[in-house]
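Q: Sequence in, structure out?
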Amino acid sequence: MSDIQNFIKKKGAEKLPLISIITVVYNGVKTIEQTIQSVIQQSYQNKEYIIVDGGSTDGTVELIRKYESYLSLWVSEHDSGIFDAMNKGIGMAKGELIGIQHHSRTIYKNRVQ
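A: Exactly. Output:
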């Protein structure tokens, strides 16, 4: 049994914990759409998805807007680098569990469970 499954079992199956998934991105137009799709297609229902963009200028923001209705929060503004962006996302997160998903990676189907 995975750590997440153990956590859920301890919390009680009737109340699934909120899981926050955060993607940080800067000029990731070539990869961000696949990443977004991999997160929103997860079957786990009690999740929030946050994207922190560092002020992209390559079309990334337009792709984020395309999926805005699936996102809990997103922001596009200059930051001081990847760790600043991660901390910004963590500060916005409300979940009991937090996962960071890089913009050029995908989550295999039903891995958030």
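The domain at 17-100 is CATH 3.90.550.10 (Spore Coat Polysaccharide Biosynthesis Protein SpsA; Chain A).
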